[in-house]
TrEMBL record:
EC number: 2.5.1.17
Any GO BP annotation: cobalamin biosynthetic process
A Pfam short name: Cob_adeno_trans
Family: Belongs to the Cob(I)alamin adenosyltransferase family.
NCBIfam families: PduO_Nterm
Listed pathway(s): Cofactor biosynthesis; adenosylcobalamin biosynthesis; adenosylcobalamin from cob(II)yrinate a,c-diamide: step 2/7
Positions of the Cobalamin adenosyltransferase-like domain: 3-167
GO molecular function: ATP binding; corrinoid adenosyltransferase activity
Protein name as it appears in the record: Corrinoid adenosyltransferase
Amino acid sequence: MKIYTRTGDKGTTSLVGGTRAAKNDPRIEAYGTVDELMAHVGYLHDLLAADAEGIRSELEWVLDRLMSGASLLASEDTMLEKLPQLYAEDVTRLERAIDRLQEGLPELRHFTLPCGHPMLSYCHVCRTACRRAERRIVTAAEHYPTVPDVVRQYVNRLSDYFYALGRRLGYDYGAEDVRWEPKTPGQQ
């Protein structure tokens, strides 16, 4: 099977179900941004050492759930029930993972900068890509009210997960939170 079809050469693409949509349609923007997020998550997964197998496994689950969310965003309304779904239980599972990641970490009492260790920093790349995907999903839902709320909820919670994961990995790698201390003119 060829990976190119030439059907998108004029600026449209197919939704699940066959309807053509402009490549700048809010649904396409939303699932395209989720796809971009998935690439970042996959890269983070591959950067993690073998001793982080529990986190790698968790990220594989995240990728599966994101693929389900993207398919819901990429679908005609009539196809939604026939596709893999996201569930409220998926959001709850993320919340439990966030709580677990934060166990034993120093309490946050200030804003932190997204640096300190490459793994921590890349979690912030995932977090901010997640926030961008969430904004695109909100826009898509404004235009297409059948976009399931749970897709937005999952991606919203997922950005919190990446923040917690970054802190956990930074802590585990011996990197302290880099506190944001606003500079005044003349300060280095």
